[in-house]
Amino acid sequence: MMMKKAIVLLVWMLITPLVCPAADVPVWVEATGEAWLGDFDTAREVRDRSRRDAESRAIEKAVGVFIRSHTLVSNSQVADDLIYAAVRGKIVEEKVVSADWDPEERSLYRTTISARVEPVYPEKGEGLSADLFLSQTELKEGDPVQLFYQVSRDAYVYIFSIAADGSVTLLLPNAAMPDNFTPAGKACRFPPEDSAIALTAMFLPGHKGDTAEEKIKLVATRGKEDLLSLGFKEGAFQAYDQNSTGMISDLVRRLNRLEPVDWTEASAVYRLKR
Q: Strand, helix or coil at 111?
């Protein structure tokens, strides 16, 4: 059954992102690591493994702090907040709080450290990269919108539009195009030629003013990832309203589990005039 022509309002009002400076400064965290004594282990090897485990847990704990301190208050921040999903941590200072064998399990060694961890972001150009362009950067209300994108390696592509009311619409994949695999280097267009889908630049009902800045966000992953619970409906894109903050928080958490070189994001902006 052919999908009916769907019109999507792609409107982005100029919104100032709520950036919390605490997300970009080192934090102190405390973590405990464990290691078991094997038949062929030395005591020193067990102590070293215990400390490395504590360091790993401290970094994981700090990364959670970095993400939470950049508060995700609405889905509209998907355009700016996904960079925080790539954050990793590096210990720059640490102190041993305690280190000893468990009093009951004599083969178990525990080390608790207090560590100062700073955020680290991947350098641009590492791993997967993506380019995203729009057909025009200056549009009038009612003009058609076309997206053009390309990935440097085979990837699975997700494309979002974000409205002024904080709602997010997932454009790709969709009910008519559930397969979002994109070959490396292939110049892709959305909507594709001869597609039943059409994108039209329009102001949201009730918008005051003669201009608006619109933005499209692309996320690409090297492997097939269950980033979202899509639940497509025939003839419609998947939309999340301004109260669906869990969608973006879940997306950030899932991306944070991937290595930074295994995913990337890109944005494209244009200005809409009456």
A: strand
State which amino acid sits at residue 249: S
Question: How many structural domains does the chain have?
Answer: 2
What digits encode the pLDDT tens for the residues 214-245?
A: 778 899 999 887 766 544 444 456 666 655 55
Q: What is the DSSP letter of 80?
A: H
- The residue among 71, 95, 120 that closes a domain is 120
Tokens of residue 243, six digits: 């109260």
Whether the CB-CB separation of 207 and 11 falls below 8 Å is answered with yes
Examine the domain organization and report whether 113 and 136 are in the same domain.
no
88-97 tens-digit pLDDT: 889 999 999 9
Q: Per the omega criterion (within 30 degrees of 0), is the bond before 205 cis? A: no
Type of residue numbered 110:
R
Evaluate whether 185 touches 128 at the Cβ level (below 8 Å): no
Rounded CA-CA distance 237/169 in Å is 7
Q: Are residues 241 and 139 in the same domain?
A: yes
Q: Take residue 233 and report the two structure tokens written for it.
A: 């409906």
pTM: 0.64
Query: Per this entry, what is the length of the chain?
Result: 274
- Contact in structure between 146 and 210 (CB atoms under 8 Å): no
CA distance readout (Å), 269 to 136, 137, 237: 9, 7, 21
Contact between 272 and 212 under an 8 Å Cβ cutoff? The reply is yes
Among residues 115, 59, 57, 128, which one has the least CA distance to residue 87? 59
Same domain for 160 and 86: no
Tokens of 244: 């669906």
The token pair at 241 is: 């309203």
Q: Are residues 200 and 73 in the same domain?
A: no
Last residue of one domain, picked from the residues 68, 88, 120:
120
Beta bridge partners of 218: 159, 266
Give the DSSP letter of residue 257.
T
Examine residue 247 and state whether it is found in any structural domain, yes or no. yes
